[in-house]
Amino acid sequence: MPGPQPLTDEQWQRIVLFGTPEEVAAGDYLFRSGERDYDLILVDTAEVELVRDSLWWLDESVLAVNGARTFAGELGLLNGQGAFLSARASRAGRVYRVPRAGLRKVMSEDDELCDLLLRTLWQRREALRKGPAALTLKFVGSPASKDFESLRRFAERLDLVHTAFEIEPGDPYAFEHHDVAPEDLPIAFIQGEPILRATPGLVADRLGLSYSGDSDEVVDLVVIGGGPAGLAAAIYGASEGLSTVLLDAVAPGGQAAATSRIENFLGFPFGVSGGELIGQASLQALKFGVRVYAPCEAARLRSSEDGLEVTLTDGRVIHARTAIVTSGAAYRRLPLARWDEFEGAGIYYAATQFELRHVVDSPVVVVGGANSAGQAALYLSSHGSPVRLVVRGDDLGRRMSAYLVDRLQEDPAIEVLTGANITALEGDGSLERVRIDAAGEVDARGLFCFIGADPATGWLDELDRDAGGFLRTGTDIPEERLDGPWMRLGREPLPFETSVPRVFAAGDVRRGSMKRVAAAVGEGSSAVASVHRALAG
């Protein structure tokens, strides 16, 4: 990892005002890997080296040395994540400690320093991916394992520096010198310590990515769901001074993160992948102080005399003054035998680089008639896969943008089958063939399913929903639901406000919303305007 550039005299004089001076001796640790409560270290007359600590199979590695007027810290400082590396004084002298609260103050009060810190911390994160630091978080598992795939997807969606090693459970040499068994897979090694039968939740707890607020803490805004609507709401809320928590059951991004290419989003004339868009939005959320927790699933939301309570699936409770529900929707599945068997082993709900590595150059089937299906078909064909696009309706242009229809019809690697249905799945351990009523049995290494989703609202008992489960908001709420608390408030629901005061909804989960990324971003940011009005009242 390259050493940092020194700050200018003017920058240094401004930033040290946020720190506390401390004299250190050579060999002193300023923070250790795994620590959750650590400081940004401003290096004055001392010298500080960043170290990937020794693992039980590997000696320590010095990754960079920080000299005068530089700083030691990681991107995780902005989100409460535990330290990835250790910082150790290699020469005695003076440093300044800037606690997380002080760092947040720098970010909010000094635009130049904010941009410099954010850009440097992000560049360090990117540089770590190609060096020995990536071994600090290591996953080991079978390539056919759904649990192993879940770990990798979790790390990639959260942009965690990591490595993944594939082994076959039946390989006797893989376990010969290790005190583990095939049934212990997948294994996550964090700082060399193994977590057997690892899950994203267990890894998140160890890394400091699970919610751990004080029991008496009350946040201004909790956003439930990290798709485009949720990220927009959290960013706008935090940038306007609201203490904001963002929760997602998997990782930020929602269905947008699974989109290979978005071509009609404002400001991206050459298109942008969902992963890139969500990655930049997540970094923006950290910049403004959003506390992002994932995987962190909400199980219940209820109002109380003191505000709102969001209960998580692990029993922890978040107290908030307002909430915005952006929990999106759950992918629909085809009612076919062996569907569960092939999920993660040939059946996918996204077409990104993550899925591509399983099907590259192999024939695939895409099912669906909207933009997401068209974009997936084009992405897969552009990477060497012959594609059959199965559309139940007879008119490809009924739910798909015209530019996509044209490109699909012009692509020689794509066969469009309208008025067609998938009737059976076949394969030995993983998907190998698909039966289509209009084409018979065809080879398929992957089946990419884009047939819509159902709103994730089953846990919201107190909120009024329509027959499809979507949340009613604003003037869409029936008058008979506007009694009790509404009478005491002396007002009607604000735009995006649900049937429970100070609980709002935006994006795919809201009745009447347009199922597009740009619309979700607009709704999430607009809902924050109503949040301010509710808090002011």
UniProtKB/TrEMBL annotation:
Q: Which reaction does it catalyse?
A: [thioredoxin]-dithiol + NADP(+) = [thioredoxin]-disulfide + NADPH + H(+)
Keyword field: Flavoprotein, Oxidoreductase
Question: Which residues does UniProt assign to the signal peptide?
Answer: none
> CDD domains of this UniProt entry?
CAP_ED
Record carries keyword Flavoprotein:
yes
Keyword presence, Flavoprotein: yes
| Residue span(s) of domain Cyclic nucleotide-binding | 7-124
- Family matches, as Pfam families: cNMP_binding (PF00027), Pyr_redox_2 (PF07992)
Q: List the protein's name.
A: Cyclic nucleotide-binding domain-containing protein
Organism, per UniProt? Microbacterium wangchenii
